[in-house]
Amino acid sequence: MPALPAKLFDEIEALSDAGDALYEAGDYKAAIAKYKAGYALVPAPKEEWEIGTSLLIAIGDTQFADGDFARAVETLTAASFAPAGMGNPFVHLRLGQSLFETGALDLAAESLQRIRGHGDDSIFDDEDPKYLAFLQSHTPNL
């Protein structure tokens, strides 16, 4: 796929950067709005562009931080099927955590177990320890 025109890429990246700053400030709703504005500019098919997937991941991560776990599941599921999101340990971490928070424990364990194929459990170092404890103790019914 060809590269995005530089002007469009810069505009999308500026919105993403603004979203990142709002996220860091704890203004999750405003951050999501910036990320979604950037995502709206990504040409179709959005999932084929790495920047589109990056924005989906940012939206899902921010929805998780905001406690909107059901929406985070929807967004991160979409990101997990995009070429740049498939096998991405962070996507599976946030998706698994969001599924855990919605009570979908078997799916949560399945998503979190996908991380194990990428090495050690260090991705859990800055996370609530309940997620790693859950992963270590839960075997999904497959």
What is the fold's blueprint, element by element?
Blueprint: H1 6-24, H2 28-41, H3 50-65, H4 69-81, H5 89-102, H6 105-116, H7 129-137
Helix pairs in contact: 1-2, 1-3, 2-3, 3-4, 3-5, 4-5, 5-6
Keywords:
7 helices, 142 residues, TPR-like_helical_dom_sf, Tetratricopeptide repeat protein, Serine Threonine Protein Phosphatase 5, Tetratricopeptide repeat, mainly alpha
Describe the structure.
With 142 residues, the chain is mostly helical. The chain has one domain (6-137): Serine Threonine Protein Phosphatase 5, Tetratricopeptide repeat, CATH 1.25.40.10. The chain has helices at 6-24, 28-41, 50-65, 69-81, 89-102, 105-116, 129-137. The longest helix has 19 residues, at 6-24. The N and C termini lie far apart (37 Å).
Question: What's the rounded overall pLDDT mean?
Answer: 92
Q: How are helices and strands ordered from N to C?
A: HHHHHHH
Ranges where pLDDT stays below 50 over 5 or more residues in a row are none
CATH secondary-structure class: Mainly Alpha
CATH superfamily: Tetratricopeptide repeat domain
- Tally the structural domains: 1
Q: Which percent range describes the beta-strand content?
A: under 5%
Q: Which geometry do the CA atoms define?
A: globular
- Please report the distance between the alpha carbons of the first and last residues: 37 Å
Radius of gyration, taken over Cα atoms and rounded to an integer in Å: 16 Å
- The CATH topology assignment is Serine Threonine Protein Phosphatase 5, Tetratricopeptide repeat
Number of H- or I-type helical stretches: 7
Number of strands: 0
The CATH architecture designation is Alpha Horseshoe
Q: How helix-rich are the residues, as a percent range?
A: 55-70%
Largest sheet: none
Structural class: mainly alpha
Protein name: Tetratricopeptide repeat protein
InterPro entries: TPR-like_helical_dom_sf
Pfam families: TPR_16
